[in-house]
């Protein structure tokens, strides 16, 4: 086996660089990383509770309240009482939330394409396929 850096060392370096490259793109749309994560997680799915959202994105449910307040204040999400549990709130994207999410995603994808262009054309799809496979393992890994 050839010597190589540990996977964590390689992916952490790449992850930090990608996060830093995303910050200006998100700032153009008035989003923080957590706000973008929330918009992506809500997607076009049915309504979900704040607790379920927090769990799905790996955030403490009390820590995302300020993010949700900001998104709601901008008209990007709706929060309505859950008819089955008036203490819970159901979340959904507004049309403006979808527009902002999609615009931010397009900007991030354009930046990612510039990164992927550093790979040989024949290496891009195998790299993305391997990354998808390994990323899918993450919640239950090791």
Automatic annotation (TrEMBL):
Transmembrane segments: none annotated. It comes from the Bacteria. SUPFAM superfamilies: Winged helix' DNA-binding domain (SSF46785). Residues 4-136 form the HTH marR-type domain. PROSITE patterns: HTH_MARR_2. Pfam families: MarR_2 (PF12802). This is Transcriptional regulator, MarR family protein. It comes from Microbispora corallina.
């Amino acid at each position: 086996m050839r010597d190589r850096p540990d996977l964590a060392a390689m992916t952490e370096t790449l992850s930090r660089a990608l996060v830093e490259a995303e910050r200006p793109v998100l700032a153009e749309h008035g989003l923080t990383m957590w706000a973008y994560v929330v918009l992506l997680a809500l997607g076009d799915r049915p309504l979900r509770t704040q607790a379920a959202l927090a769990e799905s994105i790996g955030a403490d449910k009390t820590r995302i309240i300020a993010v949700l307040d900001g998104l709601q204040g901008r008209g990007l999400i709706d929060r309505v009482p859950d008819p089955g549990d008036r203490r819970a709130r159901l979340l959904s994207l507004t049309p403006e939330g979808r527009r902002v999410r999609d615009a931010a995603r397009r900007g991030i994808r354009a930046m990612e394409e510039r990164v992927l262009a550093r790979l040989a054309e024949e290496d891009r799809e195998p790299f993305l396929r391997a990354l998808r496979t390994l990323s899918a393992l993450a919640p239950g890994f090791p």
